TrEMBL record:
Gene3D superfamilies, alphabetized: 2,3-Dihydroxybiphenyl 1,2-Dioxygenase, domain 1
Domain VOC: 125-239
SUPFAM superfamilies: Glyoxalase/Bleomycin resistance protein/Dihydroxybiphenyl dioxygenase
A UniProt-annotated Pfam family: Glyoxalase_6
Domain of life: Bacteria
InterPro entries given in the database record: Glyas_Bleomycin-R_OHBP_Dase, Glyoxalase_6, VOC_core
PANTHER family for the chain: CONSERVED PROTEIN, HYPOTHETICAL FUSION PROTEIN
Name the UniProt record assigns to this protein: VOC domain-containing protein
């Protein structure tokens, strides 16, 4: 069995404040993370946790991962934007032109996310959090498909996307050109070994697929920090 995606982890100067924002926007419950931080619980089997971990390093570049939130109508899109702004989001300029039909926002700590217009066929049936859109190569899409055991649902023109076998949020990689890496990634994957799989066996498997070890203790106890073939950091939980 492969590792499973336990959480998407956000660095935050105020973890509780950021967790409250996303809890209000997504309608998820907040609990303490036993390994330091705050968790938002999934509401069903095809969602993952969101984790907010304390880190005082400032955000200096656009994140290489962001959420695409879906809309059922133009009014639904407008209401999602209004609710996000009321909770503390702001409009963000990432170079998008006036012709786009999605709305680019940033949460209270500057993490970008999009509110997608209705009728997006790629995100149909994926739920409110339609996609985690990532900057990355075709090769890293293949890596994560193997690492998580999620099938490829898109593989064209160096763009890839994967989705869990039971559906839910897609994870996509946009191919070149790539954004600059401003150092430590503020948004990352938290993986956990599946079932009774030996932790070291899972580490060795991820390394054999192309992951590398990262010499850092910034994620705190209970986590081994690795990097995927594009250099994007992720953590493997050693206990839960």
């Amino acid at each position: 069995m492969t590792a499973h995606l336990f959480a998407i982890s956000f660095d935050a100067s105020e973890p509780l404040r950021l967790a409250q924002f996303w809890s209000g926007l997504l309608g998820r419950d907040i609990v303490d993370d036993p390994h330091d931080g705050i968790l938002l619980l999934p509401r069903n089997d095809n969602e993952f946790h969101l984790r907010f971990a304390p880190n005082q390093q400032p955000k200096v570049v656009q994140n290489r991962m962001h959420f695409d939130l879906t809309s059922s109508s133009l009014e639904d899109q407008r209401q999602t934007v209004a609710r996000a702004l009321e909770l503390g989001a702001r409009h963000a300029d990432i170079g998008q032109g006036p012709e786009i039909d999605h709305v680019v926002l940033a949460d209270p700590e500057g993490n970008e996310f999009d509110v997608i217009a209705p009728g997006n066929k790629f995100l149909a049936g994926c739920g409110f959090v339609g996609a985690l859109a990532c900057d990355g190569s075709q090769a890293v899409g293949y890596f994560w498909s193997q690492a998580l055991g999620w099938p490829l649902v898109w593989d064209q023109d160096e763009e890839t996307a994967i989705q869990a076998p039971n559906g839910g949020t897609k994870i996509s990689w946009g191919g070149p050109p790539y954004m600059p890496n401003g150092g430590r990634d503020r948004v990352r994957f938290d993986l956990a070994p599946a079932g009774d799989v030996d932790w070291q066996v899972e580490v060795d498997r991820l390394l054999s697929l192309g992951a590398t070890r990262v010499d850092t203790d910034q994620d705190g106890t209970g986590r081994l920090v690795l990097a995927d073939p594009d250099g994007q950091e992720f953590s493997l939980l050693t206990s839960r």
